[in-house]
Each structure stands twice: as C-alpha cells, then as structure tokens.
Amino acid sequence: MGGRNETKLMYFILLGFPTTGEQQLLLFSALLLVYLLTVLENFLIILIIRNNHSLQKPMYFFLGNLSFLEIWYVSAVEPKMIRDVLSHDKRISFQGCMAQLHFFVTLVCTEYVLLAVMAFDRFVAICKPLRYPLIVSHKLCAQLVAACWMCGLTTSSIKLGFIASLSFCDVDKINHYFCDISPLLNISCSDSSLAELVDFTLALLVIMLPLCAVVASYICILLTVLKIPSSQGRQKAFSTCSSHLTVVVLFYSTTLFTYARPKLMYTYRANKLVSVLYTVVVPLLNPLIYCLRNKEVRVAMRRTFTSALSLGLCLSSTTPS
C-alpha cells in the first residue's frame, strides 16, 4: 500500500515531548513528583476510608475504588513517560505497546462507568433518602463496581482485538508519549476503517451513556434540592455531591475532546497537551478535590493523622535511651 514495506514491526518509538538540556531534567523532576504525589494521595484516601468507621458508607466505598483505579491508571502511563524524558532509547515493543493500550483503555472506560455509578449513588441519597439504605446495599455496591470493571475489560478487549490485527509497516514512530488508539490508527498501513468505526462506536457508548446517566442524575438532584425550603438544607445537599460533580466535569471535559472525535483530529499537536491533562493533572487534582471539598473526609483525615502522631509519640517515649 503506497509502496510501504509490509514487514511486521517489532517495536515502536514514542516521540513524546521534544526537550533538550535543562528542560529534560526539569520535566523529569516535575513528572516524577506529580506521579509520586498522585499515588500517595490516592493511597492515603484508601487508608483513611478503611480505618475510619464514619466513612463506611457506599459513597466512600465508591471513592475508595476510584482511588484504587487511579493508582493503576497513572501507573499504566507515567512511569514509561518519565523514563523516556531522560532516555535516548524511547522504544516500546509491540507487545508492550498493546499491553499498555489494554490497561489504559480498561481503566479509562472503567472510570467513565464508575463516575456514573457514583452519580446514581448521590441521586438515591438525595432524592430517595428514606429508601437509600435498602436500595444501595453492600451487595449492590459490590455488583456495581464489578460491572464497572467488566465493562472496562470488555470494551478494551474488543478495541485491542481490532487494533492488534492492523498492519504496522515501515512507520514506527508514534507522535505521542504513550500507546493510544488514535496515533496507532494514524500509522497503520492497512485499511483501518473497521477499527475506526468500532473504536468510535464503543467510545460513544462508553462515554455518552454514562454521561447521560450523570446528567439525568444531577437534573433530578437539582430539582429535589430546589424544593428544600431552607437555604442551609439546600447547601448541605449540594455539598454532598459537589466534589463528585467537579471530578466529573474535569475528567469528561478533557477525555471527551480526545476520544469522541474523528481520527484526523489527532494531527493537532494540542492533542498531546490535552492528554497530559487527563493522564497527569486530573488524577493529581481528584484526591485534593475530594479532601478539600468534603467535610467528612477532612475530619477523618485529621483523626487519622492525630492518631498516627499520638502513636508515634507514645512509641518514642517508651523507647529506651
């Protein structure tokens, strides 16, 4: 096709961000710091939820699963990205590329559905408060989280099946910092129209259906809250879902630009910068949003740190000099 060599590629070269000298060291330090902070923040949220009885609620069960997911989400992309900043060898094997793509798409799709499930939880809590314990049971919570992961795995497996079946010839350079669907479609030398159609259709289903569920949930929440007579009651109701709504807006607004658009949109360099937002910046901000805007999490965090500090002081005082 077009005179291209039909030999099968053994590896790809991730072009990443072109930097030189001091810029490389600065970018490496910044990315490493952000990655470590993101993992630490999400790990602390999981620890705080597990160790505080006041947070043993469906809302925080879903939040703990979101934090667990985001630890793996950033770990699927950022370590390779950080290494490539300083390395001259930016190669990734074909199998490694497909593995990274599989994990990343699985986690992204799972997060879309999980955010919709969290919106459903807030809808039941605010619109049907008396029936909330009966509807959102521990069994249902576990089933919903399992369904989120199953949806992500299924979607990713279908997409990967079509991407892996494409032929990649003498063009081995991927103009990105990780293996994503659009750049792989762009360098394929075989007919990728079916893979593009499947990718676009699944992207619409996995993005738009959860988004519609989120919008419908918050419309019902808004209508219910507006019926509350006191301003204090309305403020309290809104505060229970403001953190989740902020995270939804950040995640959907950045990923929607990348995944719900034609392949040719990938040619714009701005796409790489947008990808940095949802692979680096948003995962860093999400734990901060939930901690800073949620009173129960802040109280539990102070209690946890106070207990840890007291334990440390007690241990140091009993240690023989």
Walk me through what this model shows:
Residues 1-7 have low confidence and may be disordered. With 321 residues, the chain is mostly helical. It has 11 helices and 3 strands. Helices cover 74% and strands 3% of the residues. Strands 2-1-3 form a 3-stranded mixed sheet.
Report low-confidence residues grouped into runs of 5 or more: 1-7
What class do helices, strands and sheet pairing give? mainly alpha
- Overall shape: globular
- The topology string of helices and strands comes to EHHHEHHHEHHHHH
Average pLDDT works out at: 84
Give Rg in angstroms.
22 Å
Q: Fraction of residues in helices?
A: over 70%
Query: Biggest β-sheet, characterized?
Result: 3 strands, mixed
Question: How many angstroms separate the termini?
Answer: 78 Å
Proportion of strand residues:
under 5%
Give the number of helices. 11
How do the strands of the widest beta sheet line up side by side?
Answer: 2-1-3
Query: What's the β-strand tally?
Result: 3
What are the defining features of this structure?
GPCR_Rhodpsn; single chain; three-stranded mixed sheet; 321 residues; 3 strands
Briefly say what this structure is.
With 321 residues, this protein is mainly alpha-helical. Helices cover 74% and strands 3% of the residues. One of its GO terms (cellular component) is plasma membrane.
Question: Secondary structure elements and their pairing?
Answer:
Blueprint: E1 11-14, H1 22-51, H2 58-75, H3 78-86, E2 91-93, H4 94-127, H5 132-135, H6 138-164, E3 173-174, H7 181-187, H8 193-226, H9 231-259, H10 270-292, H11 295-318
Parallel strand pairs: 1-3
Antiparallel strand pairs: 1-2
Helix pairs in contact: 1-2, 1-3, 1-10, 1-11, 2-4, 2-10, 4-6, 4-8, 4-9, 6-8, 8-9, 9-10
